[in-house]
Amino acid sequence: MTLKVVSLFVCLVMVSVAWQNDYDRDIWFACPTGKSVTRIKSKHHNWFEDRLWEYSCGNRGELGKCQWFYNVNQYDGVLLFKCPNFGRIVATKSYHNNYYEDRRFSFQCCTPKKVKATECRFTNFVNVYDGYMDYTVPNNKFLRGAYSVHKNFIEDRIWKFEICDLDTKHNNNCKDKNKEVTHG
């Protein structure tokens, strides 16, 4: 009996270690220097009406100057964000508000030094309301932006991500299939 209890405890601890925040708590995640976000996992809990988050990073070209963009969405509102100058998302912060049962997000972007983008586009929605999300940026692409819609009755968000093709051979201008967004 004791062995079963210990085994269950170890399994529960191992499962909970992967998430980088707790429900209703702030999250601040930054990739190591020179890396950008390449995977985003999240799961929703109806009691807390919030999500746990896990980010992973990888090499997607040498990075230069970085800048934070704070609170890019309003509570219960649409989130539409793109790193300027075809930068890569390298860090994120968010905080949860129990009244709105929603999060406000901030992103840090770094511009590329050498490797440029050739084409950018948004994915389809990568999750459903109240559902699990596990999105990996394909090889030879990088994460530039995000689009998210909040639904009040469900108290959750669905997500699309903007990804760009890497062009390691040329330093040409990028083709952006989506309208450029400025942030104030």
TrEMBL record:
A Pfam entry, by short name: DERM
Q: Which UniProt keywords apply?
A: Disulfide bond, Secreted, Signal
InterPro entries named in the record: Dermatopontin
Q: Where in the cell is it found?
A: Secreted
Q: Which GO terms describe its biological process?
A: collagen fibril organization
The secretion signal range is 1-18
Q: Does the keyword Signal apply?
A: yes
Q: Any coiled-coil ranges, and where?
A: none
Supply one GO CC term from the record. extracellular space
Q: Is Electron transport among the key words of this record?
A: no
What stretches pass through the bilayer?
none
Please give the PANTHER family that the UniProt record associates with this protein: DERMATOPONTIN-LIKE ISOFORM X1, DERMATOPONTIN-RELATED
Similarity remark = Belongs to the dermatopontin family.
Q: What name does UniProt use for this protein?
A: Dermatopontin
Q: Which organism is it from?
A: Patella caerulea
